[in-house]
From TrEMBL:
Pfam families attached to this UniProt entry: Amidase
Sequence ranges assigned to domain Amidase in this UniProt record: 24-444
Name this polypeptide is given: Amidase
Highest taxon above the source species: Bacteria
GO molecular function, one term: catalytic activity
Length: 463
């Protein structure tokens, strides 16, 4: 096994045991990046020289008995919305082509302090305003979309071009590409991970979170990220937690909510079968399945767009007027549409979200987690614009991908996407676990138990 193939947990153990040096690991990942980038285009910027220097320093620190913990010497990718001092933050847009960050974002600073090594900045759908990341190719099939908007981060992790990565999630942008590329993606509780120094799409919906190969890896990264930062007005002053995925597969006594509505409607048959099989596996591990009714489903899409569109337009107001021609057409159209939305619509969306949060709290009072598909279909072909369901309903690809992930953004609850198999074409399928606010440990426990009961996953066969 080559070093780039190791999970974060395995790589950290090998480094701790003196069986692998950070230099060997970083060199292996950079060689993988060099080989795959012409095919996948996961990175907006590769910081190879900086990464090699950081790896040598990490190795020297270890030799001197100075370890910073499990992330020491581990190669990472950061979505190109996340500021790193002296490195470009382009948001994959011509609008930001010449931008260089003056200081580290909170998450970059925390990961740097934990010893992680930056390999590069990963591509996003322009300003995170989309669900496909069109410039990046799926790690399992280069003719299909990567998912978005954190497509570059998911593809890098899936292909071995980063040991872990960070993304952002406003309507599903971590979990969608995680599901489509067969990796693990976490949207934490709203406010748990600070967003200072991260380019915003929608202030009241944005989250930052990790993409990893395993659930166990998630716990290691989340431990470095979580914690209050007064520079983010939404940052929670929550008690510190020791994030652990759980030691075994026993889920006896846990109640897993299985939606009877919304989450299994207009879903590909292979996706539904794989997720239901995974839910049955949770039951076999001791969990009790409980049918739940998802509240206010008819308002999900309207509320998501009613909040996101005007907030995004407000953020881009100055540049939209100054250099509209520099935006991609799809993003510019959405931003211009936001200028036409009445304030009353935004206020009604806020009210709808408040009611939705209250109703979800009632549902989650009766179960420990909810298990459902992450997305209703596997990765679409790159030129595919719509999905036609069995009843003849036609849905835009982006609308389909956001439909099942948006509720967690609207309510702020944590959501973890875990790979649960592949369809007949070999494309990955994801199941999301949703929990109570600050219930990340429960999601990690359930996800890890499922993962431990399955054969070890392999990297995407990217070439």
């Amino acid at each position: 096994m080559q070093p780039y193939e190791l999970s974060l947990t395995a790589a950290a153990a090998a480094i701790r045991a003196g069986e692998l040096s950070p230099v060997e690991l970083v060199d292996s990942v950079l060689e993988r990046v060099e080989r795959l980038e012409p095919h996948l285009n996961a990175y907006a910027t590769v910081t190879a020289e900086q990464a090699r220097h950081a790896a040598r320093k990490a190795a020297d620190d270890l030799a001197a008995g100075r370890s910073r913990g499990p992330l020491h010497g581990i190669p990472m990718g950061l979505k190109d919305l996340i500021d790193v001092a002296g490195v470009a933050t382009t948001a994959s847009s011509r609008v930001r082509a010449d931008h260089r960050a003056q200081a580290d974002s909170t998450v970059a600073a925390r990961l740097g302090a934990a010893g992680a090594v930056l390999v590069g900045k990963t591509h996003t759908h322009e300003f995170a305003y989309g669900l496909t990341t069109p410039q990046t190719r799926n790690a399992w099939d280069a003719g299909r979309v990567a998912g978005g908007s954190s497509g570059g981060s998911a593809v890098a992790v899936a292909a071995g071009a980063a040991t872990f990565a960070l993304g952002t999630d406003t309507g599903g942008s971590i979990r969608v590409p995680a599901a489509l590329n067969g990796v693990v993606g976490l949207k934490p509780t709203y406010g748990l991970v600070p967003r200072h120094g991260v380019t915003s799409l929608s202030w009241s919906l944005d989250h930052v979170g990790p993409l990893t190969r395993t659930v166990e890896d998630q716990a290691l990264v989340l431990a470095a990220l979580a914690g209050h930062d007064p520079r983010d007005p939404a940052s929670l002053a929550a008690p510190a937690q020791d994030y652990r995925p759980g030691a075994g597969e026993d889920l006896t006594g846990l109640r897993v909510g299985v939606p009877r509505n919304h989450y299994f409607e207009h879903v590909d048959t292979e996706v539904e079968a794989a997720v239901r099989q995974a839910v049955d596996r949770l039951q076999a591990l001791g969990a009790t399945l409980v049918e739940v009714e998802i509240p206010m489903t008819r308002y999900i899409q309207a509320t998501q767009w009613g909040l996101m569109v005007p907030e995004a337009t407000a953020y881009h107001e100055r540049t939209l007027r100054a250099v509209p021609e520099l935006y991609q057409v799809d993003v510019r159209t959405l931003l211009e549409a936001g200028e036409l939305m009445p304030a009353g619509d935004y206020l009604r969306a806020q009210r709808s979200r408040t009611l939705m949060r209250q109703e979800w709290a009632r549902v989650l009072a009766d179960v420990d987690v909810i298990a459902a598909p992450t997305v209703p279909a596997t990765a679409a072909k790159a030129d595919q614009e719509t999905i036609t369901w069995a009843d003849g309903t036609v849905e835009a690809v982006s609308d389909a991908y956001v439909r099942l992930s948006a509720p967690a953004n609207l309510t702020g609850v944590p959501s973890l996407s875990v790979p649960v198999g592949h369809d007949a074409a070999g494309l990955p399928i994801g199941m999301q676990l949703l929990g109570r606010p600050l219930g990340e440990n429960m999601l990690l426990r359930v996800g890890h138990a499922y993962e431990q009961s399955q054969p070890a996953r392999v990297l995407a066969p990217a070439a």
